[in-house]
Design brief:
Blueprint lengths: L1 H18 L1 H11 L21 H5 L5 H12 L8 H26 L11 H31 L14 H12 L8 H28 L7 H30 L14 H12 L8 H28 L3
Helix pairs in contact: 1-5, 1-11, 2-11, 5-6, 6-8, 8-9, 9-10, 9-11
Length: about 325
């Protein structure tokens, strides 16, 4: 069960992460809109030439508009900026959390009870634990992914222009030190704990409820329904932490000057003060539209991989 759970979760996570990467990029760009404390916050590059920076900072665009503008100004390939970092992140973070979650579920199951028959509280506890450990392992790839996704929104002179996740991590270590790889790690861990607990626990609980009440049989319809519901729950629970995490990871303070935010609380307070409390739900629509498909692809792929491995007696 140990190795098998990691392999199954890793395969499903990479497939889901790569297929929904453009939606994740749009979400990151939207979360950075209005970030006045750092620099004029363009959600995309080369837009509004000649417009005052203050006016641009207040421009708000929806996910479709942001996606269209990214394609217009940076090209279609820009929607996959940072996809190598996404793959590494899924290999490190999601493989770890998915595998540990299955191990903890098995260990905390009552002796003699059916596999998967675990109280919701224990499922949530397993998700919190697995998510926190997975996030700590995958944080370097997460920082690289956020920076690569956000790079196109900066003026040309300020872009980092990472060529790959390896280049991003290497340059961060050389220019900012090894500790820069764990920038915003406390927030990453918090978000991952929330996402994993809400996503995995709710999927299992909803799936079990649907099957036990004979609403649907254990098949594709049940998997899609349970996974999309789990994605929505995860999006609602994690969006505020995700906004703060994105802004802290994207900080690029100039030498000799203090960082825009001293920590998560400072970032949250400045964001609310300047942009209002609903700013913590910036990018919520693309978060839902990304979490929904991501979670559906994740669990549908996971169930199919499990079936294949079962047929192969792996």
């Amino acid at each position: 069960m140990g190795v098998k759970g990691f392999v199954e979760g890793g395969i499903a996570s990479v497939v889901a992460g790569c297929s929904t990467h453009p939606l994740d990029l749009i979400k990151v760009r939207m979360q950075l809109q209005g970030e006045q404390n750092v620099r004029p916050a363009f959600a995309f590059a080369n837009v509004g030439a000649g417009c005052p920076a203050a006016e641009l900072a207040h421009q708000k665009m929806g996910p479709i508009s942001v996606g269209i503008r990214v394609v217009q100004t940076e090209g279609v390939s820009a929607l996959f900026s940072g996809v190598s970092a996404t793959m590494l992140r899924q290999v490190l973070y999601s493989t770890t959390r998915m595998g540990l979650y299955e191990i903890l579920k098995e260990k905390w199951r009552e002796p003699g009870s059916k596999p998967g028959n675990l109280p919701l509280v224990k499922k949530i506890a397993a998700g919190l634990t697995a998510g926190g450990i997975g996030a700590a392992v995958g944080n370097p790839a997460d920082v690289a992914m956020v920076r690569m996704q956000a790079d196109g929104r900066l003026p040309v002179a300020q872009r980092r222009n990472y060529t790959s996740v390896a280049d991003a991590i290497g340059r961060m270590v050389r220019q900012e030190g090894v500790t820069s790889l764990w920038t915003g790690s406390s927030l990453t861990v918090q978000r991952a704990m929330i996402v994993t607990a809400s996503q995995l626990a709710s999927y299992d609980q909803i799936k079990e409820t649907i099957i036990s009440r004979d609403i649907m049989k254990d098949g594709l319809g049940t998997h899609v329904t349970a996974s999309f519901s789990a994605g929505f729950v995860a999006a609602v629970a994690s969006n505020p932490v995700d906004v703060i995490k994105t802004r802290i990871m994207n900080m690029n303070p100039k030498p000799g000057q203090p960082a825009p935010y001293s920590g998560a609380l400072d970032c949250a307070m400045k964001t609310i003060k300047v942009e209002g409390p609903m700013a913590l739900y910036k990018g919520f629509i693309p978060t839902v539209t990304r979490q929904g498909p991501f979670t559906v692809v994740l669990f549908v792929t996971l169930e199919q991989v499990r079936k294949i491995f079962k047929d192969l007696n792996f």
